[in-house]
Amino acid sequence: MNDLVAHLAELARALRADGVRVAAGDEIDALRALERSDLGDPSEVRLTLLCTFRIRRQHQALFDKLFDRLWRGRGHAVPGRTRLESEPHGPGGTPRPWPFAAGTAPTIDTTDADEPGFTQAVLLRKKSFERCTERDLAEMEPLLERLADKLATRKSRRLVPAIRGRADLRRSLRRSLATGGELLKLARRDRPIERPRLVFLCDTSGSMEMHTRFLLAFARALRRVAPGTEVFVFNTELVRVTPWLAGRQELVLDRLARGVRDWSGGTRIGESLDAFAAQHLAERVDARTTVLIFSDGLDRGDTGLIAGAMRKIRARARRVIWMNPLLSDPRYRPTARGMAVALPFVDHLAPAHDLETLGRVVATLRD
Q1: Of 265, 276, 208, which is closest to residue 238 (Cα–Cα)?
Q2: pLDDT range class, residue 274, cuts 50, 70, 90
């Protein structure tokens, strides 16, 4: 899927650079059409893109040239057309192969299809935080806010008085007593939006630096829809940073880097979690609170402290979610000392290395 979106975005950008109008909506139509196409057939892909990009006759030669240069290799001429001499080759002059297997069709996720730059949004959702730049972070902020907005649609199981909603006959009849038993207006009730109670514990040690800035941006986005969200960071010690998260992202990161001792330095997970349990657990966590811990679990300190603190946190919280960016590697196993002793007290161990995995965390929070 990443390859398809990247190829499509590259072709659309090249066409626009040469004066051919390709709108974001055309890219969306192309993705949806390719979902029903055989990607292994270059002729079918070419015709699909010609139609969905709405290429005019006067631009068709340019389209074919760019399609050959960006998507094709010398060995894959479309029937009835002459191969271009300028077609790219791989190392040693060998033709570049057609990038998609025969008989394949992608599964297209169009949840961001109403956003400008749809293909760019899809690419950003799958881009690892380790490879992201400051510009990527700025472009991701609207996507992080959209993720957070999904939490603001979760309805409570309980019913409360409301202006709209289902009729509340019992309360309506009680009201009618004031008007001599005449039912003038129906009382109503509905399920209110349930704002989650969240506590973030973010590892800011050196091994987590590239991921932490994105997690903190995620935490800031969640605070907008769940204002009671609390955020702590830890490395060699624990610091509550909730009051520092207001303002622009770059100012927040600068404030944290200056204000948090040993930022991007070493880590003492056990001591930090123990400090949270001793100093903040009773006040900040109750049976409705989800505790999210973001760390790779790499710690050489006292694992007994980790186990003791996690036991206390799990006993008090609604649930504990541990987000570990190392889970992006399929070879990873949670056998590091810190992670291994924490795992029995974790309800959900989740990867958190890109926007797509953060989206799954949001889906878990809505359950």
Answers
A1: 276
A2: very high
For the CA atoms of 259, 262, 268, 271, what is the dihedral angle to 10 degrees? -40
Please check whether residue 33 is in contact with residue 46, taking contact to mean a CB–CB distance below 8 angstroms. Answer: no
Does residue 203 fall inside a structural domain? yes
Q: Residue holding tokens 């109670």?
A: 197
Considering the chain, what is the average pLDDT of its residues?
Answer: 79
**Whether residues 216 and 344 fall in one domain:** yes
Token couple for 355: 């926007």
| pLDDT recorded at residue 318 | 94
Q: b vs e for 198-215, b when ≥16 Cβ sit within 10 Å of the residue's Cβ?
A: bbbbbbbbebbebbbbbb
Q: How many independent structural domains does the chain possess?
A: 3
Last residue of a domain, one of 126, 147, 168: 126
In 3D, which of 162, 154, 249, 158 has the Cα closest to residue 198? 154
Report yes or no on 144 lying in a domain: no
Pairing of strands 238-240, 188-190: unpaired
Q: CA-CA distance, 367 to 362, in Å (whole number)?
A: 9
**Domain span including residue 66:** 2-126
pTM over 0.85: no
Q: What's the distance, CA 348 to chain centroid?
A: 17
Task: Let me know: does 322 contact 291? Beta carbons within 8 Å.
Answer: no
> For residues 291 and 313, is the Cβ–Cβ distance under 8 A?
yes
pLDDT digits (tens, 9 = 90+) for 37-64: 777 778 888 888 888 888 988 898 999 8
Cα 138 from Cα 250, distance rounded (Å): 9
Decide if 56 is inside a domain. yes
* Cα three-residue angle 94-96-102, rounded to 5 degrees: 130
pLDDT tens across 178-227, in order?
787 777 788 888 777 777 899 999 998 877 877 888 888 888 888 888 88
At 207, give phi and psi (nearest 5°).
-70, -15
- Is residue 135 one of the residues assigned to a domain? no
Contact 50, 63 (CB under 8 A): yes
